[in-house]
Amino acid sequence: MKKHASFCQPSLTLLGMLCCKQRRNGGKLRSMKPRESRYVKIARIAYRLAPQVLPRYSHPKSPHHFTLPQLAACVLLMFYLDLS
Predict the structure, then answer these.
(1) 8 Å CB contact between 54 and 69
(2) Which of 8, 10, 25, 49 allows an S-S link to 16, with CB 3.0 to 4.6 Å?
(3) pLDDT tens track for 49-60
(4) Residue 7 belongs to what domain range?
């Protein structure tokens, strides 16, 4: 019975590629974290700073769908993207 060519050469299989990558990284497999986009960074910074200067809601009887810091972060992101 013949073996498939990729099983004979471990470097051509996915496992072989992972093993080669593992050897190149000093024996450890490293997972890459996805990079956060600049827009998400802007929104996070705006949302973190907004509660320091804005109340949570504009009025006690207002519909509590979104907080003012959330809305301010959206507005600042819109300004950053130059959208109207």
Answers:
(1) yes
(2) 10
(3) 999 999 999 999
(4) 1-30
